[in-house]
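Thread title: Can someone regenerate the structure for this chain?

I was given the following input by a collaborator and told the matching structure tokens would be attached. They weren't. Posting the sequence so someone can regenerate them.
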Amino acid sequence: MASDAPPPKGGTDTSPAQSTPDRSTTAQPTTAQFVEVQESAEFGELRRTYRSFAFPLTIAFIAWYLLYVLLSNYAGGFMGTKLFGNINVALILGLAQFVTTFLIAWFYARHASRKLDPKADVIKSRMEADA
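Best answer:
Regenerated them for you:
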């Protein structure tokens, strides 16, 4: 919806003011330095360490989720089996979805702090020293 209000006086820039940190005291890495680091064996090892953890776990969780969905759609009798009281298999497996989500997040945080962060910190400190 367009406004019929006249433009503000004194200038044409109506964008909000943005605060930018003072970068004059620290040198920033160049694009070439970023590309060099990206092509380094160290960065490749960091990427392999991340992928070797994240991809299998992601695939396993998606398979587990799809199993739950398929069982819900095609195995109603099994999912409706009462375990105790009004608690059935579907409820237990549904709650297990939440539990596995939190477990995966916890495992990843632990993995990142032990394996990924130290490697990333080495790469970061080297880039900052070279800049």
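The chain has a mean pLDDT of 85.
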